[in-house]
User: Fold this.
Amino acid sequence: MRYLLIPLLFFVYYQTAAQVKVPDSGFENADKLVSHVISKRWKAAIRLTSDDVQRALSPSKLKKAWMGIEEEYGELEKISSLDTQHTAGGYTANYKLLFERAAFDLRVVLDLKDQVTSFLFLPLNYQMPDRMLGKIIQAEHVVVETDTFRMNGELMIPDSCNNCPVVVIVHGSGPASRDLEYGPNKIYLDLALFLAEKGIASLRYDKRTYVYKDLYKEQFDSLTVDDITVDDALSAIRLVRSNQLTDSSPVFLVGHSLGALMAPRIALRDKNLKGVILLAGPTMPLHHLIDYQVRLLLQDDGRMKGARKKMINKVSGAVEELDKGNYYYKEVSNLGPWGGSFWKDILSYDPVATTVSHGMPSFVIYCERDYQVPPASNASAWDGLVDSSDHVKMTIYPGLNHLFLYGEGEPNRGEYLNPGHFSEKVINDIVEWITETEMSRTKR
Assistant:
């Protein structure tokens, strides 16, 4: 195949769709329909529709469609950007629905009798930078296999590649696709395309927990971070080396968030990697980072004070138990979908010490506006190694958030759904670092 180019670290959500406020459009039945749908009152929603709609759409079909959206993109968090239109045949009300991992336009059409004649969920589309249009990049569908697990992926190769460097992209903590989609943004696709533009190939793949959605439930207490992240990254590296298009290429690792945290372990287990790039990787204990995130996200929200306090207390209680070594504490699920084996594994791991052990060239990157992995409490752990070593570099980039998108003002999770692209400045610096690392290696 050829292209003619056209999560999340750790969130804890406490608000349910039923508590999202529907803005007043002035069209009462449109607002009622949206309110009924997000509150899961399927029959009440269908009663507002025309006879033609009711013949085609039953309450059970509406429920199935909505639950499918929630399963794929997370719970609804906000409704915004309302506008309305008068037409010859009636009225149209448009809403923007922000889910945890995507954004949709919802268009509600009413006739002159105020009956809903249609309502459409329209995903916000990824927009490629104009300069990429018309460029040709080779892309091959591949399958990353670890034991019985199979994850689809894509090997993207510049048209002029001749043993060019290849980066393997390793996800953060959430059940992410190979593109890491947030609303109209595709963070890892951006990364792969922009690297290809600069002459560097890449492999990205769907995360195991994205493909096997029930894995956390089925193996809650037994899954380790190796199962979730490390083993599949090692399989992806082996795949690159076995592919005839890249079997002679130098291979680098790019880890993001949880993937960056575990990148030093991956490098320790595959010592033929040529270098490691860590994008927004935490160094503070993971459970303390989650505690910080929850308090930050909830502290300024005036709604649901009782529920907010209850959530904070649950998270703090789980953190205290993990500090005592009680990894299989029954309420540890308040910190995320990971059980005792995961916590026992990851809390005994030190990414900085592991970087010392593997000794590979490493480029550590943080973003100034990253509230999920704030540089102030994570970057300093690298200072000693950066000062004492000539093979570890660290840079903190101003204006960027956890997804390497530019923003202004107080950082917040809603900005992830604003259209944008992975920072070109960071891309250029990564390319320069890989080039210099390769030149230094080949001279030895």
In short: The first strand starts at residue 2 and ends at 4. Residues 424-443 form the longest helix (20 residues). Residues 130-285+347-443 form a domain with the Rossmann fold fold (CATH 3.40.50.1820). The mean pLDDT is 87.
